[in-house]
Design goal:
The chain has 209 residues and is α+β, with helices and mostly antiparallel strands. 56% of the residues lie in helices and 9% in strands. The protein folds into 2 domains: 108 residues, no CATH class; 76 residues, Nonspecific Lipid-transfer Protein, Chain A. The protein starts with a helix and ends in a 5-residue tail after the last helix.
Length: 209
């Protein structure tokens, strides 16, 4: 099983177990909303633009609401459980595109529940996550108000954020750095060092793709 499929299965098992009204780290979204988002992303390409482009966000939101209206929660989770669209036809594309998507949203659900703890991940998944963080840091940290130095526990350093500004060093496991860079700063187990004002600004910044 690929990491994308493993994270997808674990996420859907958790969604089934928690039900439709559980909280997530996605602001304003319950587990029902997150399931609708993931189904839309793979099965409604006409509505995907609004995920990243604000002018199209209204249409995307309306499609997501209609998915909830038309599908009971267990059906939506069932749609997410099986890769849809081109991802169902091309497993290699599913692995390339969806490993981080499913990982982050799996953690969005896990970390919104009381008593969560970081998972021990397979070493190859940790390496894959770090590789994606390394190549995507500039994009994910483009809105940072300060320079950022990512230190991976176990080895690896990546720079992000604007040059010529105060720098904050962020240290943690690859998965925790990913969650931090995806805008889940409050729920990432990392250590921040630097000027207190810069650290505070980075904690409150809008990060992610």
């Amino acid at each position: 099983m690929t990491h994308a499929r493993g994270e997808r299965t674990a996420l859907c098992d958790l969604l089934d177990r928690l039900g439709p009204e559980a909280p997530t780290l996605c602001t304003g979204w319950t587990t029902y909303d997150l399931a609708a988002h993931l189904a839309l992303r793979e099965r409604r390409p006409d509505a995907m633009g609004g995920i990243a482009l604000k002018p199209l966000a209204g249409y995307t939101a309306s499609v997501q609401r209609r998915l909830k209206d038309r599908h009971p929660y267990p059906e939506l989770v069932g749609l997410v459980r099986k890769p849809g669209g081109v991802y169902g036809l091309l497993p290699a594309l599913d692995e390339a595109v969806n490993t981080l998507e499913m990982f982050v949203h799996h953690e969005d659900v896990r970390r919104a529940q009381p008593g969560w703890e970081p998972r021990e991940l397979p070493e190859d998944l940790e390496r894959l996550i770090w590789k994606r963080v390394s190549t995507g840091a500039r994009l994910m940290l483009r809105k940072s108000p300060v320079g950022v130095v990512l230190h991976r526990l176990g080895g690896g350093v990546v720079l992000g954020g604007p040059k010529g500004h105060a720098r904050v060093e962020v240290t943690g496991r690859a998965a925790e750095l990913l969650m931090f860079c995806f805008g889940r700063q409050e729920h990432a187990r990392v250590e921040l060092t630097g000027d207190p004002a810069a650290v505070a600004a980075l904690r409150e910044a809008t990060l992610g793709v």
